[in-house]
Design a protein that fits this description.
Layout lengths: L1 H13 L14 E6 L3 H4 L2 E8 L2 E7 L2 E12 L2 E17 L8 E8 L7 E7 L2 E3 L10 E8 L5 E3 L1
Parallel strand pairs: 1-9
Antiparallel strand pairs: 1-5, 2-3, 2-6, 4-5, 6-7, 8-9, 9-10
């Protein structure tokens, strides 16, 4: 009986109605992921984001995507090697982006003058909660994924 009471006290002490909210923010804009092998050909990405009759030109700085590979541990610390995946990713800041449908015109360019890909999409940015709903909304964004075949989906 004493064990059960002690266990109940310990469990109750671990539960708290106070949420811990950090200063982490949520970027407002459009994230872009480009799959391989298309990513190898893409050197530049631009977007035009439109709502309420106005449009904003958005540049996207593309970076090679990476993932954790081999992990090594020594004592209490571990580290993982970072390897490139052959994909690319980037983010375009869009101040004032609403949480309602917007139109995005995405253009991907390579070495030549002609675009590799041009797509027009209707998407709905969503508010994100980086610390959970009890800490408030961090701002709306949307994630676009360009598949190897050139199709684009909101994810």
């Amino acid at each position: 009986m004493r064990r059960l009471a002690l266990l109940t006290l310990l469990l109750a002490a671990g539960c708290s109605s106070e949420a811990v909210c950090t200063a982490i923010g949520t970027p407002v804009g459009v994230a872009l992921h480009i799959a391989r092998p298309l990513a190898a050909e893409v050197s530049d990405a631009t977007m035009e984001v439109c709502w309420d009759g106005a449009c904003k030109q958005v540049g996207v700085e593309l970076r090679p995507s990476t993932r954790a590979a081999r992990e090594t541990c020594s004592g209490d610390s571990c580290r993982a090697e970072e390897v490139q995946t052959g994909e690319k990713n980037g983010f375009g800041d869009v101040a004032g982006l609403p949480e309602r449908p917007v139109t995005i015109r995405l253009t991907l360019r390579g070495a030549g003058a002609k675009p590799l890909l041009e797509r027009r999409l209707e998407v709905t940015p969503k508010g994100r909660f980086p610390n959970g709903p009890e800490c408030g909304e961090g701002g709306p964004n949307v994630v676009l994924t360009v598949a190897a075949d050139g199709s684009v989906r909101e994810s």
